[in-house]
What does this fold into?
Amino acid sequence: MLGLMQNRQLLISTMIEHAQKQYGDIEIVSRTNEGPIHRYTYKDCAGRSKQLAKALTKLGVIVGDRIGTMAFNGFRHMELYFGISGMGAVCHTVNPRLSADNVAYIVNHAEDKYFFVDLPFVPLLENVESRLNSVEGVVIMTDKAHMPDTKLKNVICYEELIQSENDDYVWPDFDENTASALCYTSGTTGNPKGVLYSHRSATLHAFSALSGEGLSFSHKDTILLVVPMFHVNAWGIPYASAMCGAKLVLPGACLDGRSVHELIEKESVTVSAGVPTVWMMLLKYIKDAHKTFSTMRRTIIGGAAVPRSMIETFKKEYNVQVLHAWGMTETSPVGTACHLKRKHEGMLDDDFFALSAKQGPPVFGVEMKIVSATGEELPWDGKTCGRLLVRGPWITSGYFRGEGGEAIDAEGWFDTGDISTIDEDGYMQVTDRAKDVVKSGGEWISSIDMENQTVGLPGIVEAAVIAVPHPKWQERPLVIAVKQPGATVTKEDVIDHLSKSMAKWQLPDDVVFVDELPHGATGKLLKNVLRTKFRDHQLV
Ligand code: AMP
It folds into this structure.
């Protein structure tokens, strides 16, 4: 017997419609490429998204067409999120930090029909334009006064495009399984793979993000969205904010400590979201400039493991609680959020920080398990490591156009490529990417764990641990670290520090200091670059 409830479709347009009606006066604040801070409301955003949808229809865009975007976090990007998906087309966000070859590959693979580009990325697009096969026109995301001199063909000015339309538009109704957005994974080998989200997956994921055990947002929040809108739908936060009417602050291109802190204070931000590298810069600035946070009490950090020392600094020195979350492009992305459970109330500091550094329990809707190399399920004892598999309604079922191989097994499990433990309480902890773990004499050494411990040593800013070939043990760990300017930390200091928490056989064979570490397009450490550079490093 089927239930008798209405089968209203879960559509992205309903989120902005809701925001317009219920939170029409709430602000969206953006730092713009043109210079000034721009502020308007959800009502304005909703109206302009409709103008955009009308303009796109006039350009011949139909349901299912892919529309590329290459832009920072700003109000026009919000309008693209709602306008493109709302009309039934697919909002394909392209990461501007990718190589020109990758950008050309991705845009051609997606067959983007139109391409929206922020001012700073016009030169990048000019460089690849001759290689783009499907793009019929490029919309530059600015007003007439700021239109650049460009050699791009078929150029349209964003403000002129939408100003030629009014907002008298009714969002179309269609199947919630219709594709809404497309993001390519920035893998280190092979071609990027397309992850195609649906209105249904995006809505369920946003509900989950809102929930108390998810990212826990409400209309009382002012959210600083540092995580880029060109990466995994900015963790679904643009959707979730519209659903709950949170004030949204979009930092544009300026992610240095001073600019981020200035926005946090001026806009009375209560919660922020981003990857650890941005918070590293922020914490350094705050310390050097003797600043504090007046209103920010929470920060959501994910995309890479958060070192325990960062969680401690935020809490002890600035009274800001870190929520550690894990996810990936293929998981929309939120898979876990490290909230404490009832049994942890009153936990002592040491245990609290150790637990908070885990990636945490899965949010409702995501199932997870760890398996051995031969696929047997492994115990949840907090010690046994295995490949992390996940499944759920916002986990990918396959890559766009089937390229990138089978994504899931017969039971729907997706292999994340992460190596993890899960403890008795269901808290997952990533110990490594499968390809980064150091395999020493049949034992595994977690590079993430060693990195996190190393940055806990005063004087160290950042650290990477890679496996270096070894004649006897197959592989041994090498620490590559960046010191704070003027710090006098030595190799012996690092090894001494690590020996307090690690077994002798796990300790690194060598520590080298460098001026900076290489990062990829989404801020993650590029360990393959380090592996190539240090392939012949002589361990001492
Ligand atoms: P991407 O698809 O580019 O977002 O990368 C996803 C990968 O980032 C995951 O498979 C993890 O290896 C890593 N990752 C994301 N969040 C975390 C986290 N909180 N801790 C450790 N690794 C993470």
Notes: The chain is about 30% helix and 25% strand. The CA atoms of residues 206 and 236 lie 6 Å apart.
